[in-house]
Known about the structure:
Layout: E1 6-14, H1 21-29, E2 36-37, E3 50-51, H2 65-68, H3 73-89, E4 101-106, H4 112-124, H5 135-139, H6 143-152, E5 158-161, H7 167-180, E6 186-193, H8 198-206, E7 236-244, H9 245-250, E8 257-266, H10 279-292, E9 301-303, H11 312-324, E10 332-334, H12 337-340, H13 347-361, E11 363-364, E12 389-390, E13 395-402, E14 406-414
Parallel strand pairs: 4-5, 4-6, 9-10, 9-13
Antiparallel strand pairs: 1-7, 1-8, 2-3, 6-7, 8-14, 11-12, 13-14
Helix pairs in contact: 3-6, 7-13, 10-11
InterPro entries: 3-oxoacyl-ACP_synth-2 (IPR017568), Beta-ketoacyl_synthase (IPR000794), Ketoacyl_synth_AS (IPR018201), Ketoacyl_synth_C (IPR014031), Ketoacyl_synth_N (IPR014030), PKS_Beta-ketoAc_synthase_dom (IPR020841), Thiolase-like (IPR016039)
Organism: Arcticibacterium luteifluviistationis
Keywords: Acyltransferase, Fatty acid biosynthesis, Fatty acid metabolism, Lipid biosynthesis, Lipid metabolism, Transferase
Amino acid sequence: MELKRVVVTGLGALTPIGNDVESFWEGLKNGVSGACPITRFDATNYKTKFACELKGFEVTDFIPRQDARKMDLFTQFGVVAAEQAVLDANFDLDKVNKNKIGVIWGSGIGGLKTFEEEVLNLADNDMNPRFNPFFIPKMIADSASGQISMKFGFRGPNFVTVSACASTNNAMIDAFNYIRLGRMVACVTGGSEAAVTRAGIGGFNALRALSTRNDDYKTASRPYDTDRDGFVLGEGGAGIILEEYEHAKARGAKIYCELAGGGMSSDAYHITAPHPEGLGAFLSMEDALDDAKMVPEDIDYINTHGTSTGLGDPQEITAIENLFKDHAYKVSISSTKSMTGHLLGGAGAVESVAAILAIQHQMVPPTINLHNVDEKINPKIDLTPNVAKARKIDTVLSNCFGFGGHNATLIFKKYNG
């Protein structure tokens, strides 16, 4: 059967450097760091005392208090980002066939804050155990897609993908496939995460995964820099409306770009470490290119996974060199996690919006805090250090890799009618 084309018709972003798409892009192009001292709990006794939190976000500005109290923070973030995207897509909700619009969301952890609060409450009251009646529906990861669908009445396929930091790219690939197979006309997709909690920071500290640059937190997220000491945890999310091309054209929708392909693979190697030769990353990118019927020379910009870790950063670059050959030195590369921090399961959504905006504005966001490139990385690689760069961008590849060896790659291309 002939697969249908899939385009992007709506965007929403709730990030540590901007609470909407416009401010997010301003932060990206200006190289703004979202890192700040942790305010969500008292981090005095933690090894890491900073994170990339949202700034100036009040959930009751968007969701009535009685509804918000039934949602974990990651779901609140998801509902707000999804609403931005739905409004941007400008659907006529009285006329659109809601039975053919789905919600496929991504989150790597789900309701961590809710789970933590309930366990702490139980520990304090073990002789008289009491639980919030919304404990389970707030905690489970699929509550995000459920709440989004209920808000808009979208009755198509509805679920949440969980594959650690690859979760959102997996969600978008699923949405992409449902639409191009004709099972939906549109889908609200994306992802959200809210892991800046005691358990989140403490757990990643125990893994020695987080930066502890407490005296210089603004420069702590430094992908590819030899002086990096771990990633910076972020929070927030992003929503993206994927839509079947003919359906979008018929209703006169604004089209940002086309989603051309998606690829997936597994490292089958280690529970947290990437394959030492970047094999899973290579296979995921190769699969995405094959799906999009493209070759490496078609790619202008790669938004890398680039978390700011000594194991992950060079392996991804090795995979790019092995797959792209000489074109690896002509393509622009950057890690926007240097600005937003690592949103875990929500990372792919935020980075997909960055990729789409790079096509819109013909500009590569920078990798900030990059001053001394890791000696393991070929100096011919263009990592877009510190300053955004204008260039012709027709096609962007965006990578996400997760604990457990999950890899997922998306390819967006300029819409040409």
